[in-house]
Design brief:
With 256 residues, the protein is mainly alpha-helical. The chain has helices at 2-22, 25-60, 63-70, 73-105, 107-121, 130-162, 171-194, 199-208, 210-223, 229-246. It has one domain.
Length: 256
């Protein structure tokens, strides 16, 4: 799996060279600006609402009243640490919701860019097959909904664990890795759709090569550390890198 994570990360560097060589910048900026604006609006909403959500949890669980009665500085310290990790978990879950909404709304652009990338790699004439293109959009939306459903199950599990001192503190890390996997999953599946690989087979294949999905998702997240620029580049670089990783001649990966 480690080898596949490295291949997936290296594919982002190859994607950058690929974009420069084939002058794909307009197809980077179009979905990227949409994603960045969507991200800015959504993140501001999360930041204003997360405090209210955490406060509601503390009041409804009576944890706040219990802590005030105990008047223990060490308990207060651990309580604050727990709130920090709970906020991180909520942030990652919000980002999951936000990304999959984008994957649904932006599926036409993602499908187009994935198909265009593969046609260039294979040196084939790029012609849009209308029926295939629509099918890719529908499938991409269904995959996004399916993945978000499973992430919600994982979130609820980790959320319950996060309320347990010490035990719950690592939950944001585990949930982040799961989120990275499902991001890469969405990007890789567009390639399987073009090869007429059914969804169940695609789920199996990506599960067998989960390092490619996790690596793709990790770099996707790292892009968000670069304000605005990273937000614009993240989605397009991710889908191009995913396509390149599945067509890697130096390190071929069997996916069919």
């Amino acid at each position: 799996m480690l080898k596949e994570i490295i291949i997936s990360i290296q594919s982002y560097f190859e994607a950058h060279r690929f974009i420069k060589k084939h002058k794909l910048w307009k197809w980077i900026l179009l979905p990227g600006l949409f994603y960045a604006l969507f991200f800015i609006y959504g993140f501001s909403f999360f930041w204003s609402s997360s405090n209210e959500a955490i406060e509601w949890i503390l009041v409804e669980s009576h944890a706040k009243n219990w802590l005030e009665k105990m008047e223990d500085s060490w308990l207060s310290f651990f309580f604050i640490i727990g709130q920090i990790f709970l906020r991180l978990l909520l942030l990652i879950f919000y980002l999951s919701l936000f990304k999959f909404l984008f994957f649904i709304l932006g599926s036409p652009l993602i499908a187009y860019l994935s198909e265009k990338t593969e046609s260039i790699i294979k040196n084939e004439k790029f012609e849009i097959n209308k029926d295939q293109f629509i099918s890719d959009i529908v499938r991409g939306s269904k995959i996004a909904i399916r993945n978000f459903f499973w992430q919600t199950i994982y979130f609820l599990t980790f959320f319950m664990l996060s309320l347990i001192p010490f035990v719950g503190w690592p939950t944001p890390i585990f949930f982040l890795l799961i989120d990275c996997y499902y991001i890469g999953f969405s990007m890789l599946d567009y390639n399987h759709a073009r090869k007429n690989i059914d969804v169940n087979r695609s789920i199996f294949l990506i599960g067998q090569h989960r390092g490619l999905a996790i690596g793709n998702g990790i770099v996707f997240y790292l892009f968000h550390a670069l304000p605005l620029v990273g937000w614009v580049f993240a989605p397009s670089y991710a889908v191009i890198a995913a396509t390149i990783s599945l067509n890697n001649k130096k390190h071929p990966v069997i996916t069919s």
